[in-house]
């Protein structure tokens, strides 16, 4: 009976220790930031997708108006894709004409020619929007890969409209 009385508390103590330390090997997300550009012009909207890491999961974040993004992902190897861009989605890629304004309405303009505080010429942006080429949209075909370390990092995504 004494051996049973000694084994039970030891077994319970081992089980409790196993539960306590089981989370120690978990990977914590780390910050990754960067800027998304096409021909050195910022992509003004859309999303960046990281696929991979320790679990092969998909992590997505949005692109800000200045072309910057921020995401937290666990350490590991990732393939990265970019979707979106300014203007009508896919208009240049699919040869679909952009929608036109109904006749008789005054044109919509920012009176200063710039979005407040950004120094962006809105009229110029509307005439020549930044469009993400198709090859960069899927993480598997983009050619972008990044290793996230325990401290995160910076990963800019420079794209070319041709080539």
Descriptive notes:
With 163 residues, the chain is α+β, with helices and mostly antiparallel strands. The chain has a single domain (26-97, 111-159), classed as Sandwich (Immunoglobulin-like), CATH 2.60.40.1120. Helices cover 16% and strands 29% of the residues. The chain contains 2 helices and 9 strands. The chain has helices at 2-21, 122-127; strands spanning 30-38, 41-42, 47-52, 57-62, 68-73, 76-83, 144-148, 153-154, 157-159. The strands form 2 sheets. Strands 1, 2, 5, 8 and 9 form a 5-stranded mixed sheet that branches. It has a 4-stranded antiparallel sheet with strand order 4-3-6-7, with no helix packed on it. The longest helix is centred in the first third of the chain and has 20 residues, at 2-21. The chain is elongated. The chain starts with a helix and ends with a strand. The relative contact order is 0.22. Residues 17-23 and 86-99 have low confidence and may be disordered.
How many strands in all?
9
Uncertain regions: pLDDT < 50 for 5+ in a row?
A: 17-23, 86-99
**Regarding CATH, which class?**
Mainly Beta
Could you name the CATH homologous superfamily?
Carboxypeptidase-like, regulatory domain
Fraction of helical residues: 10-25%
**Named CATH architecture:** Sandwich
Radius of gyration, whole Å:
25 Å
């Amino acid at each position: 009976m004494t051996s049973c009385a000694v084994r039970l508390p030891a077994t319970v103590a081992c089980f409790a220790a196993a539960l306590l330390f089981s989370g120690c090997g978990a990977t914590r997300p780390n910050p990754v930031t960067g800027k998304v550009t096409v021909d050195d012009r910022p992509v003004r909207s859309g999303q960046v997708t990281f696929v991979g890491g320790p679990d092969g999961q998909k992590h997505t974040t949005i692109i800000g108006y200045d072309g910057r993004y921020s995401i937290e992902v666990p350490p590991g190897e990732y393939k990265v894709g970019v979707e979106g861009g300014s203007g009508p989605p896919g208009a240049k890629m699919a040869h679909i004409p952009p929608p036109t304004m109904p006749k008789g309405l005054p044109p919509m303009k920012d009176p200063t020619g710039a979005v407040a505080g950004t120094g962006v010429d809105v009229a110029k942006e509307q005439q020549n929007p930044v469009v993400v080429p198709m090859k960069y949209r899927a993480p598997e075909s983009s050619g972008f890969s990044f290793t996230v370390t325990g401290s995160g990092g910076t990963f800019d995504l420079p794209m070319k409209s041709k080539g």
